[in-house]
Amino acid sequence: MRDPAERLGPRAVTLWTVAAGLLWAPILLGLVVWAVLLATVATRPLWAPLLILVPIALVAAAVHVLVVPRWRYAVHRWEVSDTAVYTRTGWFDQERRIAPLNRVQTVDTERGPLERALGLATVTVTTASSAGAVRIAALDLETADRVVARVTEAAARSRGDAT
Q1: Chunked in runs of 10, what are the mean pLDDT values of the chain (163 residues)?
Q2: Whose CB among 33, 74, 106, 140 lies 3.0–4.6 Å from 126's, allowing a Cys bridge?
Q3: pTM over the 0.90 mark
Q4: Helix (H), strand (E) at residue 144
């Protein structure tokens, strides 16, 4: 089986970078608040836990914000052929999914606040598979609309029972 041919748009990296930054912001802010409270309120501050946690959190945040989005972009692929929707996702544990078009039950477009701000969308192709839906995340909105139209048309043409 060959890999899916299509890459996500470069704004996917921006989406994943911003999402990771929003995840780490309250954690890092909490560490700053903890340090300020230790420095201003505690009579005998215990700095050791903070001195251990801050470097670990900074390294983890830097990797999650700077490395992971680019790595995800490098490995995520998708494709819609005349017979199926193919995806490859994951950066440590990679997963390949194939949804035959004659088994498609629904095709959905989803856009969260960050995706809307960046002009992106996630397309979800649902089949009767127990493994769940096939998701193509962080597509440019125009591409997502084309994918939905193509999958919908192809599924309507197929003679499968979608069960």
Answers
A1: 87 98 98 94 90 97 97 94 91 88 93 97 90 92 96 80 56
A2: 106
A3: no
A4: helix 141-157
